[in-house]
Amino acid sequence: MNARLDSMYEVVRGQKQNSAADDQRIENLLKEVEKLRLAQSSAVRNDGASTSRPVVCDDALLARIMHEHEEIKAKLDAATTTNQRVETLEASLKSIKQQHEEALQEAEDWKKETLKSGNKRSRMATSPSSQLKVPSSAIRRPVTDTSQLTHLYTLEVNALKELRLQELNR
User: Fold this and answer.
1) 130: which of 69, 103, 123, 126 fits an S-S bond (Cβ 3.0–4.6 Å)?
2) Nearest to 42 by CA among 28, 52, 29, 30
3) Measured between alpha carbons, how far is residue 74 from residues 62, 77, 83 in Å?
4) How confident is the model over 152-161, as pLDDT tens digits?
5) Domain ranges (residues) in the chain
């Protein structure tokens, strides 16, 4: 029985020595198979296009590109929002300017109306900022003759008396 065990021992021992060399050969074959798989998968991904370098499938690179894409989208959204705000402000400013121009035109029309010689309020005082010129016919020249001055005074007094009577009769 010992002889049998010894022969088994020799067989197992011989396998152990050959096993180290076999393991190295197996590792080399596995590496070569892996290289072939990568080459085959890159040929499928390239859709027949030939390139000098293999396609790298890097998750970190893909994640970084996706992150940059999201940042650019966020910046684009912010720019769009800002552009809309600017357009709204421009429209508001345009309407305010138009209202201002209309108000100025209305004020100018009112001033022209008050300065007409036929208007009973033509002698109304206007603000010093008025840019309209008073017509020369509306400007009174001082009267040097006292008889004319007393006559004008009595006419004015009579007109005021009539106005007062009209107000009281109402």
Assistant:
1) 126
2) 52
3) 19, 5, 14
4) 999 999 999 9
5) 1-46, 56-115
